């Protein structure tokens, strides 16, 4: 147990009976939830963690072999759940973590009560006229090349696009988070994320799911939210007033309200 707790920098706070598990997105860590967790601490037990390779996780536990697909990250989630002997979890995943949580719930539906997806996408790449994910393959290649050649430049390019908020301090916070990551691991995580395709698994998901789709999100277009809602049989779609890809940072009150309404 201690190994997993240290490896994933697991923190447990709050005083409720039911468990909220927060899972951060690419280029981030558990600190990204700091604006919304205080609203839940009185009513829920809250589990926070960092994926291996992110935040204050044990970087020495990272291997390209384990984390070259989502399965490595799914295993991290299941390891944390089993170490803490959790059940009936409400899993709140941002961005890439939405699919990680869904895959974990398909593997062990008995562990999960509800899934809450913040800015989710099952597939970031466009596929002809059949599917609009928001990116062409050339966009992703450029992004990955930029990460390799000029990591700081990549961070300062992507942060304002993804945050899409007039407050420069929020953009700076995101940029700092991006830049603090190990460049090699971050690039591998980006590749796994942006080239992934989890559309086939959507039909296997049975846990009640809230899809929180931001308006004007440069990473996940609105079409993706509608696509997920059509293919996730037990889902609720909420279109947010929040712009950008990080509503839990830029619009914490709206984020908290929608989560509470679903719960």
From TrEMBL:
Gene3D superfamilies documented for this protein: alpha/beta hydrolase (3.40.50.1820)
Domain of life assignment: Bacteria
UniProt entry keywords in alphabetical sequence: Hydrolase
Molecular functions (GO terms): hydrolase activity
Pfam entry (one): Abhydrolase_1
Domain AB hydrolase-1: start-end pairs: 19-252
InterPro entries for this protein: AB_hydrolase_1 (IPR000073), AB_hydrolase_fold (IPR029058)
Family assignment from sequence similarity: Belongs to the AB hydrolase superfamily.
Protein name: Alpha/beta fold hydrolase
Provenance organism: Paenibacillus mendelii
């Amino acid at each position: 147990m201690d190994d997993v707790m240290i490896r994933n920098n697991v923190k447990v706070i709050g005083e409720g009976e039911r468990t909220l598990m927060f899972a951060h997105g690419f280029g981030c860590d558990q600190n990204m939830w700091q604006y919304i967790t205080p609203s839940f601490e009185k009513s829920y037990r809250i589990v926070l963690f960092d994926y291996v390779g992110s935040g204050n996780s044990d970087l020495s536990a990272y291997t390209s072999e384990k984390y070259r697909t989502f399965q490595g990250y799914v295993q991290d989630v299941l390891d944390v759940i089993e170490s803490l002997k959790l059940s009936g979890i409400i899993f709140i995943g941002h961005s890439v973590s939405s699919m990680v949580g869904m895959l974990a719930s398909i593997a062990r539906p008995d562990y999960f009560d509800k899934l809450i997806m913040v800015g989710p996408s099952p597939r970031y790449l466009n596929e002809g006229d059949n599917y609009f994910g928001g990116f062409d393959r050339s966009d992703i290649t450029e992004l990955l090349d930029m990460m390799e050649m000029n990591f700081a430049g990549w961070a300062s390019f992507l942060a304002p696009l993804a945050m899409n908020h007039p407050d420069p301090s929020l953009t700076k916070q995101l940029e700092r988070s991006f830049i603090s990551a190990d460049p090699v691991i971050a690039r591998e995580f980006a590749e796994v994320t942006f080239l992934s395709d989890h559309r086939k698994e959507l039909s296997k998901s049975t846990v009640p799911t809230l899809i929180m789709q931001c308006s004007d999100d440069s990473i996940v277009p609105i079409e993706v939210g509608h696509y997920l809602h059509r293919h996730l049989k037990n889902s609720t779609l909420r279109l947010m007033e929040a712009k950008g890809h990080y509503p839990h940072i830029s619009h914490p009150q709206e984020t908290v309200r929608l989560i509470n309404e679903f719960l």
